[in-house]
Amino acid sequence: MLTRACLPLLLPLVYWLGQSHCLDNGLARTPPMGWMAWQRYRCNVDCDNYPDECISETLFKRMADALVKEGYKDVGYEYVIIDDCWLENKRGANGRLEPDKKRFPNGIKALSDYVHSKGLKFGIYEDYGTKTCAGFPGSIDNLKLDAQTFAEWEVDYIKLDGCYASVFAMDAGYREFGKYLNETGRPMVYSCSLPAYQEERKMQINFTNLAEVCNLWRNYDDIDDSWYSVSTISAYFAIKQDLWAQYAGPGHWNDPDMLIIGNFGLSYEQSKAQMALWAILAAPLIMSNNLESMKPEFKEILQNKKILAIDQDPLGIQGRRIYVEKNIEIWTRPVIPVVGGKYSYAVAFVSKRTDGRAFPYNVTLANIGLTNTNGYKFEDLFPDDVSNSRKARIGDLENKIILPNNSIKVHINPTGVVFIKATAVKEAEVKGRSLNCMDIDTPCVVLIN
């Protein structure tokens, strides 16, 4: 854990250290956004008993429709992605992959066409190994053929898993498949799962290779529909951040896995916390939920334009956990605008507390790396909501310019978040204004008229 004293000195260095280059396919310049079946629908292939929940072309058409009808497409969610369990148990006579004929009677190309007709993009799943994780045909002996097949189906996004494969062969194997994807001439976002398998084996991961080959990659365990899972994944990202964060950037992203907001396992406060954390991490925002039955308060979280703008920030710098105290975590991410060489920041105060009340927390700006001498203007990125108001969370912080040597106070609900943007102020915005420094308990601020 870093001390308060050393944070301002270290932050500029660790944020910029070792920014790397990615494969030159021009894709995923910001983290991909869309919807994927796996976490919510898993490998349900029983369409007779569960017609609305089985992995079928009907499900993906419905979710494509919902992305458009419910406004998700309008705010940037664009991919509809099949995960495992779409295949027949064997390849066709010509060696090609074939979808389950009962559940995908019109074939994958027809489904791809339907998704494209909605102004969306189409994604699919395969596995580098001999079988997929659910036991369907894998790609290891047919990498070139499968890449050609996906291109013919006009796939826009491919997730390549790593079950039933040697972790020692994955670096070369994933690179080979990426080469075949590029040779098709069709741009396809390439999502790689190999680091999650190598991390499990405590192997040294070749992130330089990943950034050259893949647009995004899974680093850790599959997410489950629980706060424990969200908390564990974010904690592991924090542990590994000095290694992982430097390889994230336009075209190549660390992937903490799907958004589970609107399912069964997260409360409203925990859902806000996942959204904030994923935005701080510059994570792909791939939902896995039922878009047709989404409650309004969860839909509002997923479509929050201010938070989506943080996730999609063009600088592409992954944020970090910079402080932990009393089960309160502080995460920051540099974002635009950059003023006089000083970043603006997204700042998330995440509570891991469960003691039943909003916890008050004070922090000095300079101690969390906010050092612009002209100060910062603050904005609460969540609206007044069913849980509490902006006033309850941050007081009158939005009416002030706070200078770096002074503190701010927030109130964070149990297993919740206060998520704010601190916009760096230009000298012209404070020149000629008087400071309000009435007493030791009042932040030294510039009042906004």
From TrEMBL:
Keywords: Disulfide bond, Glycoprotein, Glycosidase, Hydrolase, Lipid metabolism, Lysosome, Signal. It is an enzyme of class 3 (hydrolase). Its EC number is 3.2.1.-. GO terms for cellular component: lysosome; membrane. InterPro entries: Aldolase_TIM, GH, Glyco_hydro_27, Glyco_hydro_b, Melibiase/NAGA_C. One of its GO terms (molecular function) is alpha-galactosidase activity. Residues 1-22 form the signal peptide. GO terms for biological process: glycolipid catabolic process; glycoside catabolic process; oligosaccharide metabolic process. Transmembrane segments: none annotated. Residues 316-416 form the Alpha galactosidase A C-terminal domain. Belongs to the glycosyl hydrolase 27 family. This is Alpha-galactosidase. It comes from Cacopsylla melanoneura.
